[in-house]
Amino acid sequence: MKKEYKQCNRCKSKQSKTSPPGFYKSIEVRNGVEYPIVKECLCHKNWRLETEAINNFVRNGFDPDMFDINLSNGDYVGVKSIGNITRLSKYIDNFFEDEKVRASLLFFYGPPDTQIKETVNWIGNKLIRKYEVHFVDFSTLFDKFIHSLWNPDGSKNADPEINYIIDKYSNCDLLIIGNFNINTNGKYTLYSDKQLGLFERFLKERILNNKGIIFCSLNSYTTLPNNLKDLISDKIKKRNTEFVFTDIVNDIPEELF
Ligand SMILES: [Zn+2]
């Protein structure tokens, strides 16, 4: 996904032997005195910022193959849930302006292949240029969180790497949690009440600190275990921020004529 740097004609013609491609010598006047300086051409600056954004995107858990996806610009497939994309475009725009929007809890659900993954990568790409946004699968987050509390021998964990990453997940501007499939068929099979109670503490801290979360799940939040449902339901109801995704990407015919 790394993009090659292409030098523009403007700086190519100005380039000297001693400055690298994308940079050229120029003169800056300060208080009437001319100083020789090396300038970075806009073509190089744009490439550098784009490269930084890609590196950031990958480092923070997003899918490099989805870096270029733009759902508000024709990449969304289908019509049934396209209203979500229209609304989420506004969410992205307002995220920059409004702290209430930044503190929102969003809940996305739908069967596999309904473009939820594409949607969160698109949102991540837009917001990561200004905010700290992380994507993590629930099982990974949960394991790391539990690990950050205790070592297998029961002692308090002091693994700096685990603490560092949990700190990021706790404090970043937006945390996107994938595969948040805790409750299916009314049975909690994987996690004990005690574990879920601890995880509730993690979510509660983010919510109290007005940090946004996007949950991605196969099922509605109404099917979550009670403690987690109670924690998020008021906010989701108040802002109407549950989004159901129903356009299964491979089921939609691609009409060529
Ligand atoms: Zn240039």
Overview of the molecule:
The chain folds into two domains: 59 residues, no CATH class; 188 residues, Rossmann fold (3-Layer(aba) Sandwich). Helix content is 42%, strand content 16%. The protein has nine helices and seven strands. The protein has a five-stranded parallel β-sheet, with helices on both faces. Strand 5, helix 8 and strand 6 form a beta-alpha-beta unit. It is globular and about 70 Å long. Bound molecules: zinc ion.
Provide key terms for this protein.
single chain, 257 residues, alpha/beta, Rossmann fold, 2 domains, 5-stranded parallel sheet, two-stranded antiparallel ribbon, 9 helices, 16% strand, binds zinc ion
Largest beta-sheet characterization:
5 strands, parallel
What's the total count of β strands?
7
Proper CATH architecture of the largest domain: 3-Layer(aba) Sandwich
Q: Which oligomeric state applies? A: single chain
Cofactors, ions and other ligands in the entry: zinc ion
Query: Class of the largest domain, according to the CATH hierarchy?
Result: Alpha Beta
Whole-angstrom Rg: 23 Å
Question: How is this structure best summarized?
Answer:
The protein has helices spanning 9-14, 42-59, 82-95, 99-102, 116-127, 138-149, 160-171, 193-208, 226-239, and strands at residues 23-30, 33-40, 105-109, 133-137, 174-178, 212-217, 242-244. With 257 residues, the chain is α/β, with parallel strands linked by helices. The chain is globular.
